[in-house]
Amino acid sequence: MTTTLSGKHYLAGQWHAAGATFASTNPARLSETIGAFPRGTKADADAAVAAARAAFPAWRRTSRIHRAELFDNLAQIVKRETDALARLMARECGKVVTECRAEVVEGLHMIQYVFGTGRMPMGDVLALEIAEKDTFMRRKPWGVAAVITPWNFPFAVPLWMLGPSLVEGNTAVFKPSEDTPAIGQRLIELFIEAGFPPGVINLVHGEAEAGEALVRNPGVNCVLFTGSYEVGKRIAEISASMHDRIVASEAGSKSAVIVAEDAKLDLAVTCGLISAFKTSGQRCVSGSRVIVHEKLIDAYAEKLVALTKRLRIGDPLDANNFMGPLINQAALEKVERYNQIAKDEGATILLLGERLTDAAHADGCYLSPTIYRIKYGPKVRCIREEVFGPHLALIPFKDNEEASRIYNDTEYGLSLAIITENYRTMRYFRDECEYGMGYVNLPCIGAEVHLPFGGVKKSSNGHPSAAALVEAVTHKTAWTVNHAEEAKMAQGLTTEIK
Ligand code: NAD
């Protein structure tokens, strides 16, 4: 029997709960409530930003190495809590517990990376024209970061943003997704146990109202957002009136696997299946298109459908299951809508996704995978728009030029996988396709924290996440010291006064 959690905001080192609440439910068992959480208001958001602003000067002056050492404390705690965190995550967001465990480990890796940066360079030493001058590029924190995150990576994605922000000397307000507040709150409890001082990290629960109030607060220097393109665009529009506001926005995609004429078929099938259906297709990098050479597509479709039919769909707490439910009823209905759009657009359905309504699944948002074959066309919506569920299009192509054209013909550009044995083919797609993360003979999912995580077009506004986020959460300063007795200038400029 699990107890129902009682959620609270965390402001300036104190837990607070007041006003209206919202419930977090288990998508695998809608009758099970995980907890009740306060619905954050503008007043809560403003109080959190004020707390972060007040804590900033002392935190900025704290030794960088001491700040980093708190992340070492956090790493030890996360190791202790890994299995419990994975189980809570599985209950709250419906990802299978093995995937949740991998996400906790990814979060741990981010924490370990951040700890490591404490004793690494925080800038560069540069040469100057005048030998007696020393000069440095030194990074400084901006101030307060608002961290607004999605439900599908409720532990690792917040850490991708909180890690670099805090170690560099910023303070933060974290607003987790309204679908995963319990795991968000648990993360803050771990930060507190690790010894982060009051005000350095603050938590506001809630929905769009709380998120938007943070964005509208001019006391926030950086908005670090991951979620849908539509919300990221709104955040950028609101922030445009604040000329020195940094917005790092990571959004969705229509990622794809390209199976070249010379691909090894079994490898290509595995990569397509993992890209499309891991996390029930609910990753930003999920490959909802497999673009297959026309000579291979019949054999490819047959093998892929046969393998997909074998996938076990069920309780996320059972490590033998491959897929859990979708996050909520609205997500399920959206995928069904796109299944219908595909049919209306002329798709040949190879496997039709269905709601699972037997006793083991009836209380959850379970939907089995859909696979269809469809010809490319510039107006076909189902191969251009993000669906975010187990919905996969197989699209034939004749030559590599056509494959790259099909790949690029969406408004997104996040992840790409090429299956080929030919280095010229690999290089062609590497250079011609629009993406942020590219893979060869792999699925198009599988990030690691020390690599930049971002994309182009609607997928990102150019500030990759995880380790690369240091560029967004700091500003670079030039610091020059003269060791001569008199001031000497570059470019032949003189200080002589006639
Ligand atoms: P979402 O955009 O609905 O919500 C994300 C966050 O924004 C939530 O915390 C939400 O409360 C908040 N929010 C909503 N309206 C807001 C507003 N007006 N102002 C400020 N904040 C607001 O996204 P979601 O459904 O939680 O996640 C799914 C989306 O996230 C998909 O599009 C997926 O591709 C994307 N995603 C991207 C990445 C990446 O790194 N590129 C990673 C994971 C998920």
Uncertain residue segments: none
Strand count, sense and barrel status of the largest sheet are:
7 strands, mixed
Name of the CATH class of the largest domain: Alpha Beta
- Helical stretch count? 13
According to CATH, the fold-level topology of the largest domain is Aldehyde Dehydrogenase, Chain A, domain 1
What is the tally of beta strands? 22
Oligomer: single chain
* Bound small molecules, deduplicated: nicotinamide-adenine-dinucleotide
Alpha-beta classification = alpha/beta
The average pLDDT score comes to 97
- What portion of residues belong to β-strands? 15-25%
Domain unit count: 2
The second-level CATH architecture of the largest domain is 3-Layer(aba) Sandwich
Shape: globular
- Measured between the Cα atoms of the first and last residue, the distance is 88 Å
The helix content is: 25-40%
CATH homology-level superfamily of the largest domain = Aldehyde Dehydrogenase, Chain A, domain 1
Rounded radius of gyration (Å): 24 Å
Strand order of the largest sheet: 15-16-17-14-13-19-20
What does this 3D model show about the protein?
With 498 residues, the protein is α/β, with parallel strands linked by helices. It is globular. Helix 4 links the parallel strand 8 and strand 9. Helix 2 runs antiparallel to helix 5. The protein has a seven-stranded mixed beta sheet with strand order 15-16-17-14-13-19-20, sandwiched between helices. It folds into two domains: 266 residues, Aldehyde Dehydrogenase, Chain A, domain 1 (3-Layer(aba) Sandwich), CATH 3.40.605; 186 residues, Aldehyde Dehydrogenase, Chain A, domain 2. Nicotinamide-adenine-dinucleotide binds next to helix 6 and helix 7.
